């Protein structure tokens, strides 16, 4: 990932935006799609909760790393 920042010569703001976009949790639209296609609602809701909690930690860490190196 860091290699891409150097190759494309991204600014600090651009690098932060890319990290935020790739680190966002699963969208709630996933749950509505699972309801539409009658799949496992419990699994989808737990995946949404898990990815939201994980993104709070990982986004903070990645943004800290980006700020330190860029």
Descriptive overview:
It is elongated and about 45 Å long. The longest helix has 29 residues, at 41-69. It contains 4 helices and no strands. Helix 2 runs antiparallel to helix 4 and helix 3 (29-36) packs antiparallel against helix 4 (41-69). The chain has helices spanning 2-8, 12-22, 29-36, 41-69. It has one domain. It is 79% helix and 0% strand. The protein starts with a helix and ends with a helix. It is mainly α.
Write the layout of secondary structure elements.
Blueprint: H1 2-8, H2 12-22, H3 29-36, H4 41-69
Helix pairs in contact: 2-4, 3-4
Q: How much of the residues is beta strand, in percent? A: under 5%
What series of H and E elements makes up the topology? HHHH
- Helix count equals 4
Task: List the uncertain runs.
Answer: none
Helix coverage percent = over 70%
Overall number of strands: 0
**Radius of gyration, whole Å:** 16 Å
- Euclidean distance between termini CA atoms: 13 Å
Roughly what is the average pLDDT, rounded to an integer? 85
Largest sheet: none
Question: Structural class from helices and strands?
Answer: mainly alpha
The rough form would be described as elongated
Domain count: the total is 1
Quaternary class? single chain
